[in-house]
Amino acid sequence: QVQLAESGGGLVQPGGSLRLSCAASGSVFSYTAMGWYRQAPGKQRELVARIFSGGITNYADSVKGRFTISRDNVKTTVYLQMNSLKPEDTAVYYCNVDRVQYGLGITWGQGTQVTVSS
To answer: CA-to-CA distance for 51 and 96, rounded, in angstroms?
Structure first.
């Protein structure tokens, strides 16, 4: 059973940067995509960025040009580099792995808090 653990969140000033990591506890051999989502207080969880197994990425319009999703060579850790952070980026950030097409459902991490404030 795969478990995901996010890290790298914290408090940063507007304009600053953070790098989030999402490590899988076990090998993830087959998946459709791994992604980063966020949920701000009082709002629904939303997609931030996603990387498909073939390497294609997509981003929410609000983070294009500022955030970059990547993964390591063995594809068990996914990163989210966040630059030019804004107060509206404040949220709990979650990673997930989508293995629905393989009958293994969607697995979520526990989340990491990102706060952008002066």
So the answer is: 11
